[in-house]
Amino acid sequence: MAILALESSCDETAAAICTPDGRLLASRIASQADIHRLYGGVVPEVASRNHILHVRPLVAEVLAEAGMQLGDIAAFAATSGPGLVSSLLIGTSMAKALAVAEKKPFLAVNHMEGHLLSPFMDENGPVSPSIALIVSGGHTMLVQVRSVGDYRLLGRTRDDAAGEAFDKVAKMIGLPYPGGPEIDKQARLGNPRAYAFPRSFLDGQSLEFSFSGLKTAVLYELPKLNLENATVLADVCASVQEAITEVLVEKLVLAARQTGETLVTVSGGVSCNRGLREKLTARCAKEGLTLLLARPDLCTDNAGMIAFAAAQRFSLGHTSPLEADVDPNLAL
Ligand code: KG4
Ligand code: ZN
């Protein structure tokens, strides 16, 4: 028996199957990035129409990959928020329909819990007391994790999310959507000390984040920059990445110190960033903190993490009513 989960909160349609103890048996993603790149960002109407096209074939593909039939699935799960309403509705409607047809339970999964628990996948479990940094396109949060479902928000961004900062700056300097991976690529060739971009709330004990000042600082710098010059472009990218990642790493360490936790985890799309991963590894080793990072393909949106979160909840006896609605602003 296994759990089948669907993810359709934004512009990726994804399906995955995992065992009740959270071992991933199959995972597929149909990315729409190429379509939305034409518009410089996600167009909700276009996203939901494409989810409809992809969702049924993806279910068939993961069942085939896992060597299973619908009858082998113990519960059907889907992301119910936060995200785009019209996108969320596709995955949840499909999962509910499968649950009704197969007479099996349905589980509504919080997308952020999916990210939060993803570092515990790949035999890194069980989920243990820790400090989680979640850095995605829509969220930047520090969370104290006591056990599955027992979370305390320690801090979050007051304005832009870290991924949003990467994407907005990338757009300003002419890099394609999504900008995070593009800045990451360029930054490898640049000097992170070339430009001194602001680091908000770095002094003191605050666990809050703010990235809008960085965006403004880059905007003011723009007229002085010759971005046609590859070295200038690489230096700007490396400096922006340094400003964002330094704040993320320092706040995570601060949260660990304040709470006395020694296990820290980092998840969400931005946790793919090579500079961030290197900085985290070095800093955590120096601080004596144990660091769990999700596999890069489990950092950006995927259904594997949704299946894993659903399996954790299901094993605790949780299920959701079929009336459970989607919620674009669902809190953790
Ligand atoms: O978790 P995710 O796939 O979707 C949301 O739930 O938002 O995160 C997407 C975000 C985007 O802002 C994207 O630019 C950023 O993650 N991202 C990166 C990298 N890969 C994805 N940011 C920096 N460096 C990367 N390598
Ligand atoms: Zn996400």
TrEMBL record:
The keyword Glycoprotein does not apply. Fe cation binds at residues 111, 115, 301. It is found in: Cytoplasm. Its cofactor is Fe(2+). It catalyses: L-threonylcarbamoyladenylate + adenosine(37) in tRNA = N(6)-L-threonylcarbamoyladenosine(37) in tRNA + AMP + H(+). Substrate binds at residues 134-138, 167, 180, 184, 273. SUPFAM superfamilies: Actin-like ATPase domain. GO terms for molecular function: iron ion binding; tRNA N(6)-L-threonylcarbamoyladenine synthase activity. Pfam families: TsaD. GO terms for cellular component: cytoplasm. Its EC number is 2.3.1.234. The keyword Transferase applies. Gene3D superfamilies: 3.30.420.40. Keywords: Acyltransferase, Cytoplasm, Iron, Metal-binding, Transferase, tRNA processing. It comes from the Bacteria. InterPro entries: ATPase_NBD (IPR043129), Gcp-like_dom (IPR000905), KAE1/TsaD (IPR017861), TsaD (IPR022450). Binds 1 Fe(2+) ion per subunit. Its main location: cytoplasm. One of its GO terms (biological process) is tRNA threonylcarbamoyladenosine modification. Required for the formation of a threonylcarbamoyl group on adenosine at position 37 (t(6)A37) in tRNAs that read codons beginning with adenine. Is involved in the transfer of the threonylcarbamoyl moiety of threonylcarbamoyl-AMP (TC-AMP) to the N6 group of A37, together with TsaE and TsaB. TsaD likely plays a direct catalytic role in this reaction. Belongs to the KAE1 / TsaD family. This is tRNA N6-adenosine threonylcarbamoyltransferase.
